[in-house]
Amino acid sequence: MATSGEAPESWYLALLGFAEHFRTSSPPKIRLCVHCLQAVFQFKPPQRVEARTHLQLGSVLYHHTKNTELARSHLEKAWFISQQIPQFEDVKFEAASLLSELYCQQLLLHNLVDSAKPLLRKAIQISQQTPYWHCRLLFQLAQLHTLEKDLVSACDLLGVGAEYTRVVGSEYTRALFLLSKGMLLLMERKLGEVHPLLTLCGTIVENWQGNPIQKESLRVFFLVLQVTHYLDAGQVKSVKPCLKQLQQCIQTISTLHDDEILPSNPADLFHWLPKEHMCVLVYLVTVMHSMQAGYLEKAQKYTDKALMQLEKLKMLDSSPILSTFQVILLEHIIMCRLVTGHKATALQEISQVCQLCAQSPRLFTNHASQLHTLLGLYCLSVNCMDNAEAQFTAALRVSDLTTHQELWAFIVTNLASVYIREGNRDQELYNLLERINPDHNFPVSSHCLRAAAFYIRGLLSFFQGRYNEAKRFLRETLKMSNAEDLNRLTACSLVLLGHIFYVLGNHRESNNMVVPAMQLASKIPDMSVQLWSSALLKDLNKACGNTIDAHEAAQMHQNFSQQLLQDHIAACSLPEHNLISWTDGPPPVGQFQAQNGPSTSLASLL
Question: Where does the sequence pass through the membrane (predicted)?
Fold first, then answer.
């Protein structure tokens, strides 16, 4: 105990020093740090010291232990005491912020979200004279509403923040509020509101003169929204100028040094994402573009770069956004691998996504539909039609149609292709096709998905022997896919048109379709279209008496068949192949039993 003549600050500073020493030790000695902070209360400290110590204890327990109940108790005391002390903003609002964060962390265990909202609202109400905390708390409450899928309330709060920052003269943070609002409006598909808002943001960003890294990070945020907006609309050609600007912008950022000069306006003390996270995000949107456009080797190259960067970042940074980036990258590269004939690798990567989702309930909630969709696509590629149907049906069941309309249309399109291939599901098929009718009230604004819907109609007409109707649909697909450089759809449409002309006996016209289809499929590369094209070229050349060319095409067909067959056997022999029977509940991890061999039909590949 301190002697009565000793100043109270000395014992306090000593205990604080010890606590910090133990907290920053390697490894940290958290139990001793907590003991030192708890000892402060033995001295019956003044209110300010008592509130700050409760905050420090709450923070240490929250960040370094699993004792959330005790952390919560200390933070609630800090918040309660600090409200009675004038000019004590830093402790008061940090306690409110951390406490509501803790409530949200416990959302899955208890229904504490209703405790977090009024707490944040009160803190926002009393923080108007403290610009930094007022903005931070507005962002936090908007994020909470976003997690609850209440995007309207979140947008309202971001609008309040934008107006507040305009009044306090912070154009930088005003841009952050407006860009965040633009992101949510894009999620809600409120395109009429998005366009004027993004135009305003563009003007603010260009006119703002300040820290170069902050300015460039605003530009990255702005361009990422523009690029994803184009990609959502399936416009992979129109997006190219924006994507190029974004790539140049991230190169500029990587050459700039982080200046430690703090902004003079406290409302400017924010940044959107760390520089390293922005680099991964730019790789990610580049992969999304390459996959949609059918540049699959480029998609592979950028995925490898991004995943390598992510592995390095995850060693030092536990930010949940990194796992989200990783899952989205894997989702895209899995689709690429299924096209390029690497099904076994795709299946192992689907298993990897399962493991990542198993570690985070929120990640699984947001990606369950995509995971079932990927398994459906894998089932299609190995000809397990019943499992494909079950996976796509599961994906539709767990998808959130309000924010994933494009995903819904993508799943329905693929499910329609399953019914066409099964050949005996007419009623279900017509019900689906009515919902994705490209000629009438198509449900989403995506150029790419509408072109795919025409292709599905063409495929059905082909199987029904209605060749003129099939040609009309496929020419529509070709027109749309050529307009936006959708290479895979172009290749698929060309080879199917070639097949139709071959059946009709128009060999010259068939050849005019199949040769460019083969060239494009080789460039992508798309193994299934190459297999299909080589089979047609073999038959065409044979019919025209071109023996040498027919022999060459037959050899190509044999090579593609062998590659696909080997990959098919490898994939179906993996224990992860059992994932195709998972259609409900959390992702199965470590439950795979090795199979004796493939149990699926190979006939369609040969």
Answer: none
Distance CA 569, CA 431 (A): 35
Statement: residue 599 has pLDDT above 90: no
Tokens of residue 265, six digits: 């306006």
Length in residues, the chain: 606
Residue 32's φ and ψ, nearest 5 degrees, are -70, -35
HEC readout, 114-155: HHHHHHHHHHHHHCCCCHHHHHHHHHHHHHHHHHCCCHHHHH
- Is the pLDDT score of 224 beyond 70? yes
- Tokens of residue 521, six digits: 């499929």
Q: Which long-range contacts (CB under 8 A, 24 or more apart) does 558-561 make?
A: 560/527, 560/530, 560/531, 560/534, 561/531, 561/605, 561/606
d(CA 594, CA 197): 54
Instruction: Name residue 434's amino acid.
Output: E
User: Pick from 366, 375, 381, 420: which is nearest to 393 by CA?
Assistant: 375
Read off the tokens for 585: 């509940």
Residue owning tokens 């799943």: 411
Rounded to whole angstroms, the maximal C-alpha distance in the chain is 112
Q: Are 363 and 369 in contact (CB under 8 A)?
A: no
pLDDT tens for residues 460-476?
999 999 999 999 999 99
Separation CA 325–CA 174 (nearest Å): 26
Distance CA 204, CA 232 (A): 25
Residue 175: pLDDT above 50? Answer: yes
pLDDT at residue 125 greater than cutoff 80: yes
Sign, Cα dihedral of 260, 261, 265, 266: positive
For CA atoms 226, 148, 117, 106, the dihedral sign is negative
* Model confidence pLDDT, tens digit, residues 315-363: 888 888 999 999 999 999 999 999 999 999 999 999 999 999 999 888 9
- Other beta carbons within 10 angstroms of residue 163's beta carbon come to 11
Q: Are 564 and 556 within 8 A, CB to CB?
A: no
Distance CA 484, CA 505 (A): 31
| Contact call for residues 176 and 272 (beta carbons, < 8 A) | yes
Amino acid at position 53, single letter: T
> Taking the C-alpha atoms of 410, 413, 418 and 420 in order, what is their torsion angle to the nearest 10 degrees?
-170
| Start-to-end Cα distance in the chain | 86
pLDDT score recorded for residue 1? 39
Quick check: 183 pLDDT over 90? Answer: yes
Count how many Cα atoms sit within 13 Å of the Cα of residue 278 in the half-sphere of its side chain. 26
Euclidean distance between CA atoms 395 and 410, whole angstroms:
11
Answer yes or no: are the C-beta atoms of 135 and 157 closer than 8 Å: no
> With DSSP H G I counted as helix, E B as strand and the rest as coil, what are the percentages for the chain, rounded to 5?
75, 0, 25
pTM of the model: 0.87
The residues, ordered by sequence, that sit 6+ positions from 123 with a Cβ below 8 Å of its Cβ are: 92, 93, 96, 97, 100, 133, 137
